[in-house]
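OP here, attaching both records as promised.
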Amino acid sequence: MEFHGFQKLTLLDFPGKTACTLFTGGCDLRCPFCHNAELVLHPEAAPTVGEAEILAYLERRRGILDGVAITGGEPLMHPELAGFLRQVRALGFAVKLDTNGTYPLRLRTLVEEGLLDYVAMDVKASPAGYPAVVGIPQFRTDRIAESIRFLLTEPVDYEFRTTVVREFHDLAGIDALGRWIRGAKRHYLQAFKDSVALIGAGMTPVPKAEMLQMRDVMLQYVSACEVRGV
């Protein structure tokens, strides 16, 4: 398996663990606010890192690093991910996966095989808001809903997270999102950050005071909700 980015040390990407972060290329969504536009739109243009190099690095870091965070793009687009994770597991590392939830069967398979310790799933909006947020007209949320239902059974430690953008999110939409993931153990509202590498343009952040209102709305439905990045 090839990766399109390799951060050798992070203290932020894997809760409670020192880790490295691996970036996969390609995604099945086109969220306008995505800050990894090149990985999504033109993964073939990014330098690659092979799994042999990464596994050799992990072998040298046994006892120093705790885990590996897999992000993208959308990692579950790649069926060969499971084979790579088996090798990571054999070296004794914990694994965190970031996913958009569009591959529920692959998610379930990795969890049931014991290859994941933590899943961070993006829940982009309420079901009605998804087509605009993911940049795909007529987008259906069936697979997203299946992934949500699976994680709500707590087969693995997890979080849901939502990047909040003025043009896509308001209090009513956040309330609908909260009802969709009712009973979740952990949810994060992430502040939108503009950059030069976005897929779309013309988007703005939501003020901190309103983000805190959104948190209070979410706390009607989830056990814990925090605001990130404000």
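Record two, same layout:
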Amino acid sequence: MEKQIKLFLEFLQNDKKLSSNTLQSYKRDILQYQSYIDENQLNYLKIDKEQLEKYLKNLGKANKKPSTISRNLATIRAFYQYLIRTKKVKKDPTEGVHSPKVEKKIPSVLTAKEVELLLNQPKNIDLKGIRDKAMLEFAYATGMRVTEIISLDITDVNVEESYVVCNSGSNKRNIPLGSMSLQALVEYIEKARPILIKNETDKALFVNINGKRLTRQGFWKIVKYYKEQAHISKEITPHVLRHSFATHLLRNGADLKSIQTMLGHSDISSTQVYMQFKNENLQDIYNKAHPRA
């Protein structure tokens, strides 16, 4: 089983082009499943539906969240689909096994005023301020994931046509840049980045003060710092900026399909969670306008 897991993970990395974070999730899930197989002396090639359901129940007893159990099942399903493809098994034992119902969490979203307050915090009076201004404007303007932003190279930005190319994951997509984001980005590229990088051959778009590609942790710290500077009580993460990007676009008339494309969602159901914010002021409007309200 160990050999097949290794080949499976290589297949996900090389053929499916999964991001490193997604790949790590698959690895955790499948190794956990392997431990269960070994502990119970089962043959993974002869597992049936009932045994799989028992495994998922055990995860529930271990206080795993429905979303975690659902992800585990998706990983195991992908593993057996791979084994069918490589002719190691004939039948997928996960067929007919249902995921636990997962409630979609309401994403935390900033108001337009809170976004403006946050984005106005970095001051372009030094290299760090110029970079941070460009980064925050960019995150809100594109709605890209943190891993996608920090993976960007300087060549992924088309300043003349005002868009950025996101190559992360299996789907390549072009995302437009607004004028304010583009202005901050150009200032960073022209004034700060050339001084921050130690080597002209370095490709990373956003770098830290040591000239190295910015990390996820570095990005999070920057967002947290400016959130505190702005005295915003809400919890703000880079992902909250992504949620705010999608919600504000929807409220201002963008169609769901376009937002799905920009966010890089493979399934529109992931984008539909933002619909609940579209008319959040409807009750207020009704209360003010209806004579019997």
